[in-house]
Amino acid sequence: MKWIDLRSDTVTKPTKAMRRAMGEAAVGDDVYGEDPTVNLLEKTMAQMTGMEAGLFCASGTQSNLLALIAHCNRGDEYIVGQMAHTYRYEGGGAAVLGSIQPQPLDFEPDGTLDLDRVGQSIKPDDFHFARTTLLCLENTQGGKVLPMDYLARTRAFVDAHDLALHLDGARVFNAAVKLNVDLQQITRHFDTVSCCLSKGLGAPVGSVLCGPTKIIKKARRWRKMLGGGMRQAGILAAAGLHALKNHITRLEDDHKNAQKLALNLSDIKGINIDPQGVQTNIIFADIKADMVKLQGHLKKNSIIIDSSNDLRLVTHLDIKAQDIEHTIGAFNSFFS
Ligand SMILES: *Cc1c(COP(=O)(O)O)cnc(C)c1O
Across the strands, what pairs with 53? Predict the structure, then answer.
């Protein structure tokens, strides 16, 4: 039996072709820099993002943490979204392991950080304050694509204020596919970018941090210190390379599936969805129902969701068009 798991795009399982690529990967000891497949993945991602160098990391959390630590010194501060993954969902790693103070600000409804408010929260050069050194954005943010003109304005802003700019690009490929632009059109505005391979791209493990050689060299040292120096990791990198080759353009299907699901669910009395907010593969639905009952009903129909009334539904590689039809039917039968 097939489960339709809509909780996250991290639940994808490696395809047969991906497993074959992993099985056939040329490997070596990556701590010695001798794994050809890891080296190729790092070089490929650096080229795709237009950066000098790449670093294969165990997770997006590790990749973001390494970026923060490589950019900031002890007692520095980074400005970040209140609901940003790097601030809220990474165990406070920047503070715990980097002695870096966060300055969180609320995201605007479109997923941006208001640059006037960012400017107001930059601390003056005065020993009372932490040193503000980094601004961190997220794209996509809750499935929303940051506007291209905002990225250009943000680059000019950080240059004027002498800040570095990091992108948590866990789903930056979704943004590029949605805008129908080359990835570099987005990443060129940033100093460093973290891209997840294990979300919509469907690899089992891994993220790549890309940036200037100097920053990546620092990040590599910290990765080793954190226990992230892996040996024959080419087996994992091969999955990433396979994903980059085969699973980027198809993100379009995930976006179409999310659109269709959102449109049909928003017709149901008891479900409230802002269609403007559904730009890529993530839907937020405000549901007026007993969630445990809804969850149980869907489970009987082999559909898995979370139990929050503020429900997040995510489409991905393992959700096909007919699964969307089936899901719409199951929601309808519950609410009618
Ligand atoms: C998933 C995700 C990450 C990284 O998460 P890991 O589970 O550590 O790979 C980072 N940022 C955002 C926005 C994410 O959704």
Answer: 211
Residues 303 and 222 in one domain: no
Beta strand pairing call for 310-314 and 282-287: antiparallel
pLDDT value at 1 more than 90: no
Sign of CA dihedral 308, 312, 317, 318: positive
Q: Of the candidates 186, 212, 246, which is a domain's last residue?
A: 246
* Domain end call among 193, 226, 246: 246
Please check the confidence at residue 296 and state whether its pLDDT lies above 90: yes
> Who's near 276: CB < 8 A, 6+ residues apart?
none
Which residue segment(s) compose the domain that 270 sits in? 250-335
CB 123 within 8 A of CB 101: no
What's this model's pTM, rounded to 2 decimal places? 0.97
Compute, in angstroms, the gap from residue 128 CA to the centroid of ligand 1: 33
Ligand 1 within 6 A of CB of 144: no
Pocket flag, ligand 1, residue 170 (CB < 6 Å): yes
